[in-house]
Amino acid sequence: VENGRDKLRRKALDLIVANEVGSAGTGFGADRLRAAVLSAGPDGESDLAERTKEEVAAALFDRIAARLAPA
User: Fold this and answer.
1) Of residues 12, 15, 23, the one with CA closest to residue 50
2) What distance in Å separates the CA atoms of residue 24 and residue 5, rounded to the nearest whole number?
3) pLDDT by residue (tens digit) across 21-61?
4) How would you label 29-58 residue by residue, b for 16+ Cβ within 10 Å and e otherwise?
5) pTM for the complete prediction?
6) Which pLDDT score is estimated for 42?
7) Residue 9 near residue 57, CB atoms below 8 Å
8) Which are the contacts of 36, defined by CB distance < 8 A and separation ≥ 6?
9) Arithmetic mean of pLDDT, 11-21
10) Residue 15 has pLDDT above 80, yes or no
11) Among candidates 6, 41, 4, 9, which has minimal Cα distance to 19?
């Protein structure tokens, strides 16, 4: 997650998904990730947790939708 925070700042990103590499049963070729959604905005970051790839995508989608919604 720390590398993700650094990349978020360095590249001036709004959002990034930081996934843990090397955990058994997660990542490439698996149905699950150990990941967190990091944000440069006030919504902060989600916990680093093991989730399905669909759950990570839904969390990212929710963050993007909230940012694009009219105030």
Assistant:
1) 23
2) 23
3) 877 788 888 889 888 888 888 777 778 788 899 998 998 89
4) eeebbbbbbbbeeeeebbebeebeeeebee
5) 0.76
6) 79
7) no
8) 1, 4, 17, 18, 45, 46, 47, 48, 49
9) 90
10) yes
11) 4
Count CB neighbours of 70 within 10 A.
3
Judge whether 59 and 39 are in contact, CB under 8 Å. Answer: no
List the structure tokens of 70.
């009219």
Strand-pair category, 32-39 with 15-19: antiparallel
| Half-sphere exposure (Cβ direction) of 41: Cα atoms closer than 13 Å | 10
Quickly tell me which residue has 């947790």 as its tokens: 49
